[in-house]
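User:
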Amino acid sequence: MTDADRVRTEGREDDPAKSERSLAPLMGATYVVAGIAHFLIPRRFAEAIPPSFPRPIGLVYLSGIAEILLGIGVAIPRTRRPSAWGIVALLVAVFPANVHLARGDVLADLLPDRLVAPARLAALIRLPFQGVLIAWALRYARPDDAEPTASGSESTASGSESTASGSQA
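Assistant: Predicted structure:
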């Protein structure tokens, strides 16, 4: 093993993409808890849905089921990648509700007057934070086999050509 190979091997342990994999169960638990909340207080969630959308309570239950299933899925390594793509799709799908909540008078109807301003600020902050949540999910959506090899190229199914040439150096 060459010094360059040793550095590459050691660096993989510190690779942020690898270390963040351990946060998948946290992501999953977050979505499961949020999904359960959809069933505990469905009318509160329905208030956030724009009036032009049909059957708000049905959409709340549907998104709650999706959050629970995708949360479980992202916590399991075997189903992590497709579940992460599902979370991205879900976050895009619920964005209109987040905009409606931030822009509309919904909060004034739901909360005491003293809490409306802080809640509106939180709803406005939530809009760009949606991008952060999407980026977090996308980290788990990418393929695991896209690791660089000794030659610096993407690994192939066999991977033997690049490792064989790298070990002769």
